[in-house]
Amino acid sequence: LSAMVPTAAAVFGLTCQWNKGAMNISWTPQSSSDYYEVQLAVNATAEPFVVHSTAGANVVVDSLLPSREYYVTMRTHAASTPSLGPGTWGQPAGRVVCESGADVVPQKRKYARADTKLLEVMRESEFTYDVDYLMNHNSGTIEADAAFASFGAIKPDEKTPWNTTFYNATFTLYCVEMLNVDVPDTFSTGGNSSYSDYMSCNDNHNATDPLCICDNWIDRILSKVNPDGNCHDSFGHNCTYLTGMKDCTCTCSQENMDNSNKYIGMMPVYMDPEDEYCYGQWFSHPKPTECDDDEEVGAARADGSVCTWKRHKEARIVKGYQVLDNGFNTTHARKLDPARAMQNAEAFRKSFAQAPLQQWACEDTASILV
Fold first, then answer.
1. What are 276-319's pLDDT values in tens digits?
2. With helix as H, strand as E and coil as C, how does the chain read?
3. pTM above 0.90, yes or no
């Protein structure tokens, strides 16, 4: 019920073994690495459709379909680098072909505890075509990200401000467990105290060491937060559409920033300040409080801090060209039509659902891709 056929040099000692309805993939730890990403694809040249990431030396993949071949590679993360973003990883290597058995069991459902909740988020990688993870990055609901991508995909072959094309862009779907909190006096959350204020991330011109800052002008506009009085140009004037993207600095209170650096931040996404239609939410993920592999959400640390959010090890991937093939609408319009945005969100969901894996479910109420 198992097979492992090396198709490249056995770099990292990568092996797989089918056991009790799941695939155990293991490797030799590398002295220069502190984190590993296992990638699965349908053949030797295809893009990966799922990754499992860990600081350990093995992962158990319990989402496979029966009696299928999966091409497995791995890339390693350079120890002591400041993020999981571009410039911190080696190239994928060590491909093996792993065969699932006929005795597949249903994937273990993800459940929150009484003091946590699950959050499904999608992220488009920036300044790379690889997965760039969540720490000090922004993400969103599929609906909100699809609405935003509807602007960037008008010409899918042209480079975006993040130095990627929509056609080849990498979109990753995560399941995040987060601590239940009650954050007082937020301004960006639309009155939802389950989140801290949203931070704008990865705009510091160094994607290898991304930083998050006080919610910027354009994000406030998209969330219908009045920026006047808190966002100023270099002359001290309120920012405008002429200055907001180039010469504008926004300020937040120290209390707001302290909370935003502890807890996942959120903003509702309207796309147009005159629009009453909310497309979903965007989130910010503070690096200091991401839980390690061996930490439970809410765990207290020796320095007095608490880890407040954690990615599940499995994350699913689609490329922009797959979304286009599944009906993503690139029609140009002066104003975004909610029906078109929902069509594009369905194109994302359909693309994720086409992976040769069991159905994805993140929320306790079964947010399932079908």
1. 999 999 999 999 999 999 999 999 999 999 999 999 999 999 99
2. CCCEEECCCCHHHCEEEEECCEEEEECCCCCCEEEEEEEEECCCCCCCCEEEEECCCEEEECCECCCCEEEEEEEEEECCCCCCCCCCECCCEEEEEEECCCCCCCCCCCCCCCCEEEEEEEEECCCCCCCCCCCCEEEECHHHHHHHHHHHCCCCCCECCCCCECCCCEEEEEEEEEECCCCCCCCCCCCCCCCEECEEECCCCCCCCCCEEECCHHHHHHCCCCCCCCEECCCCCECCCCCCCCCCEECCCHHHHHHHCCCCEEEEECCCCCCCCCCEEEEEECHHHECCCCCCCCCECCCCCECCEEECCEEEEEEHHHHHHCCCCCCCCCCCCHHHHHHHHHHHHHHHHCCCECCCECCCCCCECC
3. yes
